[in-house]
Amino acid sequence: MPLSSHADSILGAVRVYPDKTPIYHQGDTAMRIFRVNSGVVMTFRLLEDSRRQITGFCTEGEFFGLSPDGEYKDGAVTVTSAGVQSISIAALESDPVLSAKLLAHSWRKVEDTQSLMMTLTKTSSEARVAAFLVMLAERRGRRDGHEDSAPIQVGLPMSRLDIADYLGLSRETVSRRLTDLQELGLIDLPDIHTACITQFDGLRRRAGLMAAA
Description:
Pfam families: cNMP_binding, HTH_Crp_2. Residues 123-201 form the HTH crp-type domain. Keywords: DNA-binding, Transcription, Transcription regulation. This is Crp/Fnr family transcriptional regulator. Residues 17-65 form the Cyclic nucleotide-binding domain. The chain is of the alpha+beta class. The protein folds into two domains: 3-102, Jelly Rolls (Sandwich), CATH 2.60.120.10; 122-206, Winged helix-like DNA-binding domain superfamily/Winged helix DNA-binding domain (Arc Repressor Mutant, subunit A, Orthogonal Bundle), CATH 1.10.10. Helices cover 41% and strands 24% of the residues. It has seven helices and eleven strands. It has helices at 3-11, 89-93, 96-120, 125-144, 160-167, 171-183, 200-206; strands at residues 15-17, 22-24, 32-38, 41-46, 52-58, 63-64, 75-78, 82-88, 152-155, 187-191, 194-197. The protein has a four-stranded antiparallel β-sheet. Strands 2-7-4-5 form a four-stranded antiparallel β-sheet. β10 (187-191) and β11 form a beta hairpin. α3 (96-120) runs antiparallel to α4 (125-144) and α4 runs antiparallel to α7 (200-206). The longest helix is centred in the middle third of the chain and has 25 residues, at 96-120. It is globular. The N and C termini lie far apart (47 Å).
């Protein structure tokens, strides 16, 4: 049985949450692990000074709610209406196939976290916004098999404030940098929730991920 089919059979029914609905709160006892079936779920951490740090945007097929010590370190809330499946940690531990899938996903999350840390060390706000779009494009490209030369359309269902809290910027700065990248001809912004990357290599250079030609 393919891993995706096995996961569906073990995780069971999809529960649909409306947009902006909490799934669990930071500090809750971690009893279940979740997977996004459709839509987008955002994870975030409330800091001691009451600021909010977005820690991830989870899309179709991605797990969230992993905890090393029985307590959720982040909160989770839907960005859009989202279908979510879940499994108890006890049941997961007795299923080696799903455990292996989750382990592979955990390594990808480590890579995403390392990428975020690298993004946050960039001094340029333009580089941070460009790196965010590159991350979304690479995530979609791996799933959909886009050709390198083809424009890549990525959804931006999250608010500009959500993006700002993810990148450590202000909402106004995020909006300005998106406009700047559009004026440079690297992206199009057909609407507030969509970005079409027309020059992927150029965007990667702006993000500091490629040497200038």
